[in-house]
Design brief:
- It is globular and about 40 Å long.
- The chain is α+β, with helices and mostly antiparallel strands and about 140 residues long.
- β5 and β6 form a beta hairpin.
- The longest helix has 14 residues.
- A three-stranded antiparallel sheet has the order 3-2-7, covered by helices on one side. Strands 1-4 form a two-stranded antiparallel ribbon.
- About 25% of the residues lie in helices and about 15% in strands.
């Protein structure tokens, strides 16, 4: 929650947020379960600058980037930007390349954007959720 307040201070207005979800680490590992949520925001920042702002917030809360699957204290991702498509050079890739395969993203995202359609596949979020594998577990905690 504190990270959302910092975003507000950076001229990134939080419109809505999901409940918090606990989820098993992906890929499966001995790491503890994570807490995840999704927020819909509004900002004048372009995608690259918005991602920079997210990384600044992570750094403010002590995020260290030790590796792609390493445990982290805070991980803020740009999932979608007004339905834009971007190949990630320069970052970010839009929509986020793995969001359609992750219950911990799709379930909270469905709370803030129930009519969302994946800009690349054209699939509705409910279709993506129903296609998740049995290894994808995310449970609301509040």
């Amino acid at each position: 929650m504190a990270a959302l307040g910092v975003l507000e201070d950076m001229d990134v207005r939080v419109i809505s947020r999901s409940r918090w979800y606990k989820s098993a680490p992906v890929p499966v590992s001995s790491q503890p379960w994570f807490i995840n949520g999704v927020a819909a925001v509004d900002s004048h920042l372009d995608p690259a600058d918005l991602l920079k702002a997210l990384h600044m917030v992570e750094n403010r809360f002590g995020r260290e980037r030790s590796g792609p699957a390493a445990a982290r204290s805070l991980d803020l991702d740009l999932l979608d930007y007004r339905g834009s498509l971007a190949d990630g050079v320069p970052p970010p890739e839009l929509p986020h390349p793995r969001l359609a395969d992750r219950a911990f993203v799709l379930l909270p995202m469905a709370e803030v954007a129930p009519g969302w359609i994946h800009p690349r596949s054209g699939k509705e979020i409910t279709v993506l959720i129903n296609a998740l594998g049995p290894d994808q577990v995310a449970e609301p905690i509040d």
